[in-house]
Design goal:
By secondary structure, the chain is an alpha+beta fold. It folds into two domains: 245 residues, no CATH class; 166 residues, no CATH class. The protein is built from 17 helices and 17 strands. Helix 2 crosses helix 3, helix 3 packs across helix 4 and helix 5 packs parallel to helix 15. The chain starts with a helix and ends with a helix.
Length: 462
């Protein structure tokens, strides 16, 4: 960034923040918003209220009251942010990412704080957890929304909740339900996700997968090894036979001699549709330590819903080429004929939301809040998302459009292609993650025709 670009930032920020003017009934809180966000995008070492207020020559109490007491519509601010993303950053292969992040905190007054798993420290720690919905479109990514996860212990202690400003109607909800609410709100504001992806903490909940499927949302979900289903569709009885004694049997139902639903770990190891299949090798992207390569198998997969098999889904079995102990299982409701490269492109897109968390915590003070009020916390997360969207737009504008297979930037900020099938033989038919087309083939035939005889050597991959 040169001196001219630095000078251009201030008027650009002022013009951007004017788009949120309708959130404020008076000019005073609008000015405080400009002060707060200007402090977040500045070079202050710590982005909590006191350093931001000191840099602006204001009493710290002024910004504290701006977050906790002043009348302004933070929910409308999120709506405007999502409308901006929907109008200006739509993409033919947009990917929504559901994830959570932890914020380590001391004491017991911060809303939702308790000892729980903290991804930021990688251990059980005293922290709060927030659930977020991210958005990735080409080389652009941002956070669309976020909400505090309220643990059961907090939900059952209403006196403690009232002391933290948590209304009585706010009760404990599983994280996947919070994620669905964030998704529904974004859809209502015009954001369109061609795909949705999330890790096994959310993929282990069948109800989440069924709800997204009912809403017509395509997804690629990482699932735990004990997630169950079938690779071979079990037979279903559609008619029952009544002999005049006892209650008629319910139909449709599974035949008695059918194999029960089996874990994906055992299916991938022992069931012939995947066991007898040759590995395909994909170069996912270029990381900071070299190419990221995975060996992959895929087959049609049937989930169990209300005791019956669903329509065909995909089961993706992936093994890290450089670390065979790292194994991932993915389930997707992608329609038949979807190229495997596209499914892998979505499955390995979760780094976008991790990059958003890293940027917001490192540069915008996402975890630097020092508040004891639920409203202040929610407003801090909202303002941080607004700040990050501004930086994402400036970065994309100054960086310029890149002509690449899918336009995605890697974790090291270099533009890299999407998943590419590595094959040392000439192919008559290829696919790219940048083309959301249809091969007009079902998953089984696609996997069989594209299977490799054997994984190529690492030197060929490099």
């Amino acid at each position: 960034m040169d001196a001219q670009q630095i000078l251009a930032l201030k008027p650009m920020l002022a013009e951007y923040l004017r788009r949120f003017a309708s959130c404020f009934g008076r000019s005073e809180p609008a000015r405080h918003m400009q002060t707060y966000i200007s402090g977040q995008v500045s070079d202050l070492r710590r982005k909590s209220i006191e350093p931001i207020a000191d840099a602006a020559g204001l009493p710290a109490r002024t910004l504290q009251q701006f977050l906790s007491r002043h009348a302004w519509d933070d929910e409308r601010m999120i709506d405007i942010l999502q409308e901006i993303v929907a109008a200006e950053h739509g993409h033919a292969c947009s990917v929504g990412v559901i994830d959570e992040t932890g914020h380590p905190k001391k004491g017991d007054k911060t809303p939702g704080v308790q000892r729980q798993w903290c991804g930021n420290t990688g251990k059980i720690d005293n922290c709060i957890v927030t659930v977020h919905l991210g958005y990735a479109a080409g080389d652009f990514h941002c956070l669309l929304d976020g909400e505090l996860f309220l643990p059961q212990g907090w939900s059952q202690d209403r006196v403690r909740c009232r002391a933290a400003g948590i209304p009585d109607e706010r009760v404990h909800r599983p994280k996947w339900q919070i994620a669905l609410e964030l998704y529904a709100r974004a859809i209502g504001n015009g954001v369109r996700f061609e795909w949705l992806t999330f890790d096994e903490a959310y993929g282990q909940v069948p109800q989440l997968l069924f709800t997204l499927d009912d809403r017509g949302q395509r997804y690629v979900a990482e699932v735990p090894p004990d997630f169950t289903g079938w690779l071979i569709r079990p037979a279903v009885l559609q008619k029952g036979r009544y002999c005049g004694t006892g209650r008629p049997k319910n139909v449709p139902r599974l035949k008695v001699k059918n194999t029960p639903a089996v874990s994906v770990k055992n299916l991938c190891r022992h069931s012939h549709p995947i066991r007898d299949q040759a590995w395909q090798t994909f170069h996912i992207k270029d990381g900071t330590k070299g190419p990221i390569v995975w060996h992959v198998k895929a087959a049609p997969f049937y989930l169990k819903r209300n005791g019956l098999p669903t329509r065909p889904h995909w089961l993706i079995y992936a093994c890290n080429a450089t670390d065979p102990t790292e194994v991932k299982y993915f389930v997707s409701n992608a329609p038949k004929g979807t190229p495997l490269e596209i499914i892998l492109h979505v499955a390995f897109s979760r780094w976008h939301v991790e990059r958003c968390f890293q940027d917001e915590k490192s540069y915008l003070g996402m975890s630097d809040f020092e508040v004891r009020n639920d409203l202040s916390l929610r407003r801090h997360l909202t303002l941080t998302a607004v700040s990050h969207l501004f930086l994402a737009k400036v970065h994309q504008q100054w960086r310029g459009e890149k002509s690449t297979p899918d336009g995605l930037s890697g974790p090291d900020r270099r533009v890299c292609p999407g998943p590419v099938l590595v094959d040392d033989r000439p192919r008559t038919e290829t696919a790219s993650a940048s083309v959301c087309g249809d091969y007009h083939r079902d998953p089984a035939s696609y996997c069989q025709s594209a299977a490799l005889a054997s994984p190529p050597p690492t030197t060929a991959i490099a």
